C-alpha cells in the first residue's frame, strides 16, 4: 500500500486501500478502526449550486450541518472533522469516521422482529421527518444524502481497546457512516425528493419488520398538512 507520510494534523501516516472500500477512502497505518476521507477546499461542486460560499465557508457549512444532526436531531454521526493539508500543499478537511461492526440497513433482512431495532428505527425516521419539515420552512441549507438506507449501519463501534482483547459492550445502534461535508444544497425540489425517499424507506422497513413505527407515523400525520406538494 502507498503510505502518505507527514500528514497534518496527524502524528502517524495514513495509507490507501481499505479492503472492500472505494479508493477514495484511507486508514491510519496499523489501525483499521477508522476510515479517513479528505475533502479539498473548493468553491463549488456538483453538490453546491451556489456562489454564496467561499471554499472555507462551504467546508464549515458542511461540518455545521453534520453537527446539527447530532445536536439538534439526535442522529449518531461517529465522525470527527479536522482542517489540514494533503501532502502539505492542498488545503482541506479530514473526516475521521469510526468503523462500525454491523450491516447497512439496505442489506438487512430480518428473520425475527427486534424490539430494540424497531425502537431505534422509529426514533431515526421521526428525527429525519422533523429535519425535512424544519428545512422546508427555514429554506436553509440541508444535507441531501442522508435519506437513503445504505447511508446507515446497524451495529457497534469498533473500539481501539478491542486490540487488547476487551469486548465492545456498547449497545447496538444506528450510525450514519457515509459523511460527505459537501453533500448539501438549498433546493426545495431536492428536499422533497429526499422526503419521498424517506417515505419509501419507512414503508419498506415496516414491511420487513412487520410493524408500524408509531412515533414516525404520528410525526408524518403532523407534517403532511404542513408540507405542500411542489
What do these coordinates show?
This protein has 230 residues and is α+β, with helices and mostly antiparallel strands. It has two domains: 15-98, no CATH class; 102-224, no CATH class. The protein has helices at residues 55-73, 115-138, 188-209, 214-224, and strands at 3-4, 14-16, 26-28, 31-40, 79-86, 90-98, 100-104, 142-143, 152-157, 173-176, 184-185. Helix 2 (115-138) packs antiparallel against helix 3 (188-209) and helix 2 runs parallel beside helix 4 (214-224). The chain is flat, with a radius of gyration of 19 Å. Mean pLDDT is 82; it is low at 1-8, 43-47 and 162-167.
In summary, what is this structure?
This protein is of the alpha+beta class and 230 residues long. The protein has helices spanning 55-73, 115-138, 188-209, 214-224, and strands at 3-4, 14-16, 26-28, 31-40, 79-86, 90-98, 100-104, 142-143, 152-157, 173-176, 184-185.
Properties at a glance:
230 residues, alpha+beta, flat, 6-stranded antiparallel β-sheet, 2 domains
Number of domains: 2
Tell me the radius of gyration.
19 Å
* Mean pLDDT across residues: 82
| Secondary-structure content class | alpha+beta
Distance between the termini: 49 Å
Q: What proportion strand?
A: 15-25%
Going across the major beta sheet, what is the strand order? 1-2-3-4-6-5
What's the total helix number?
4
Fraction of residues in helices?
25-40%
Return residue spans where pLDDT drops below 50 for at least 5 consecutive residues.
1-8, 43-47, 162-167
Encode the helix/strand succession as letters: EEEEHEEEHEEEEHH
Quick one: biggest sheet? 6 strands, antiparallel
Number of strands: 11
Amino acid at each position: 500500500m502507498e503510505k502518505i507520510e507527514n500528514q497534518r494534523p496527524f502524528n502517524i501516516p495514513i495509507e490507501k486501500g481499505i479492503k472492500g472500500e472505494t479508493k477514495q477512502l484511507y486508514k491510519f497505518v496499523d489501525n483499521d478502526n477508522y476510515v479517513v476521507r479528505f475533502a479539498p477546499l473548493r468553491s463549488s461542486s456538483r453538490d453546491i449550486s451556489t456562489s454564496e460560499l467561499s471554499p472555507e465557508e462551504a467546508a464549515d457549512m458542511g461540518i455545521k450541518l453534520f453537527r446539527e444532526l447530532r445536536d439538534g436531531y439526535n442522529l449518531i454521526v461517529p465522525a470527527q472533522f479536522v482542517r489540514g493539508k494533503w501532502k502539505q500543499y492542498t488545503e482541506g478537511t479530514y473526516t475521521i469516521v469510526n468503523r462500525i461492526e454491523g450491516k447497512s440497513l439496505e442489506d438487512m433482512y430480518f428473520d425475527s422482529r427486534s424490539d430494540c431495532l424497531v425502537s431505534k428505527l422509529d426514533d431515526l425516521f421521526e428525527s429525519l421527518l422533523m429535519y425535512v419539515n424544519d428545512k422546508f420552512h427555514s429554506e436553509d441549507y440541508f444535507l441531501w444524502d442522508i435519506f437513503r438506507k445504505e447511508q446507515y449501519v446497524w451495529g457497534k463501534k469498533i473500539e481501539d481497546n478491542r486490540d487488547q482483547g476487551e469486548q465492545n459492550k456498547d449497545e447496538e445502534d444506528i450510525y450514519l457512516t457515509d459523511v460527505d461535508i459537501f453533500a448539501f444544497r438549498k433546493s426545495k425540489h431536492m428536499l422533497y425528493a429526499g422526503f419521498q425517499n424517506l417515505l419509501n424507506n419507512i414503508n419498506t422497513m415496516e414491511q420487513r419488520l412487520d410493524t408500524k413505527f408509531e412515533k414516525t407515523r404520528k410525526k408524518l400525520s403532523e407534517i403532511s398538512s404542513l408540507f405542500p406538494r411542489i
